Amino acid sequence: MFFEVYRILYFLGVTVGLWLLFRKAGRSPWLALIPVYRVVVWIKLCGKSWRWYLYFLIPAVNVFAFLLLVVETAKMFQRYNFWEQTFAVVFPWIYLPVVGGNARLEYVDSSKRVPHKVGQLRDWVDSIVFALVAAVIIRGHIFELYNIPSSSMEKSLLVGDNLLVSKAAYGPRAAMTPLSLPLVHNVLPFSQGQTESYLKWIQLPYHRYAGWSTVKRFDAVVFNYPDGDTVCTAWQSNRSYHDLVREEGREAVLNATTMNVNGVLVPNKIRVRPVDKRENFIKRCIGLPGETLEIRDQQVYINGQPIENPQHLQFQYAVLFRPDVPSNPHHTLSQAGVSEEDFANAVAQQRFEGIPHFIVPLSPAVARELAKHYEVDTVQPLVFPADSGSTDLFPHNGRYGWSVDNFGPVHIPAKGEVLELNKDNICFYERLIRDFEGNTLEVKGESIVINGKEARTYKVKMDYYWMMGDNRHNSADSRFWGYVPENHIVGKAARVLWSKDKDSGKWRWNRFLKDASAMD
Question: Is the peptide bond before 323 cis (omega within 30 degrees of 0)?
């Protein structure tokens, strides 16, 4: 409701402002009611050339053009104060009616306006403020650049890929935490992840404006990490706070002022983060609201039917080289596309466990080609059976004991769906009901108590999704932390703008402008 009212006020404010402006400038005020043409009239009154018509047709550029016209409108009334122009850029829906309706201010045609010169410092400050406001609007509502930091989507998306993420595709999500340092996600630079970049004094409700699409199966989706509502700053998103609590106990985690991170003691604080300030993850959408998902021997089934697998889907394989033939495992595996990081991990595991083979991620097609090499003895796929009693995977209940390769079935809730609740299935929905949808929940014996009342059903408020990485044995995804709520969705990975190989330092020219959600 808040955002609908704001959108109406914004539209009305700009319309009323243009109505008053046109009247002062001697133009028919009703022209402000005509879409598109009112922009043409506004451009002419500001003394701008015909090229500005084209700027308004270009996504993202039109944001800059609109804000620049607001500043030019202030100049038409000979208003040059820095703070006033800054207010005009930030709140145009308020400024335009105020300046247009002020009887003491007169419109001055651009041809008669006396040039107003500002100092070089003021000119720089004006440019920085303007660019900052426009960048925040574009980054929050149109698109954002995203760098692939890990190998969880390889070989579909590679470490070193730089993506264009469309915020408009699924509809831009309004900021929930408005008091935030611009262009910084959740921690201040140079603070080693210890200082938050936002204030939680104001928290706005979830709202998503209309987009041109919805989340579809196989889309590469950027979303806020669902398990990142509480974090240990020593680990950030590298290890879930909830996993640490399950392993070490809540009190031990809460009281730890330092944590051992890969052999180094790192200062630790517990942070509770709002939805839009949780870490950004990218995975492929595999399950949609209302569906039932199951994994049998690495094959995903939706509603009982096998689904298509991405061409570059990877699993771990045990590669054994022939002892009687000279070989260079590093070179052979590198030629097969195994990264330096994956090879180093395989060597470390080989030494630690005393195994003769190298365990590395490969696609089935690459594994078949690798097995043909003369120096290679065997390439054996690893399939993890269900692990009875394990609580590592969602829903973290020992009675299921699923594995990453044999998982489910699990139902994915849809908005408006009424869930039947009991003590056996509440582990699937407890976090959904309590943490994602803001209710209190207690399990008392056979009874489930929601918001102080015993409940046998629950009506879901949001759609939920199931996300998985294409590098199936090296991906922290929904198999570990469950559903992704719709209010966590950031945008759709649209294009790989550029890509640089981390190992060789070379540009991957064949990946430039590649469809980031492609299955091949």
Answer: no
